[in-house]
Structure to design on (116 residues):
């Protein structure tokens, strides 16, 4: 790791990007900008509380932008920023790996369960 990076900041970022909900939300927002309810629906089984926390953290680190839309009642739309889009490549690679290997991973879990 780069020695110029503050260790505390580095740990916070690692915690954020290693979080399963961060990956799922980033992946879903990579498809298009979404309102909270749409994002919650397609990122199931995330709870409203976890989605809110995840979006706030992604926003805090500049990976997601939040726009209040001029509707009645007001609604909010979330989208990836350029920084979030740069992370999307990494997330997509991991999601592709899971898709390519899910059968082997499930088989390994079944074998482990039988052996236990």
């Amino acid at each position: 790791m780069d020695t110029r990076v503050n260790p505390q900041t580095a740990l916070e970022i690692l915690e954020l990007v290693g979080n399963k909900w961060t990956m799922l939300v980033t992946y879903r927002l990579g498809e298009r900008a979404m309102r909270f309810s749409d994002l919650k629906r397609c990122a199931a089984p995330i709870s409203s509380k976890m989605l809110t926390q995840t979006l706030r953290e992604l926003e805090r680190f500049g990976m997601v932008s939040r726009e209040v839309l001029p509707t009645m009642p007001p609604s909010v739309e979330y989208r990836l920023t350029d920084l979030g889009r740069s992370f999307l490549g990494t997330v997509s690679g991991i999601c592709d790996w899971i898709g390519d290997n899910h059968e082997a991973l499930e088989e390994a879990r079944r074998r482990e369960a039988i052996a236990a």
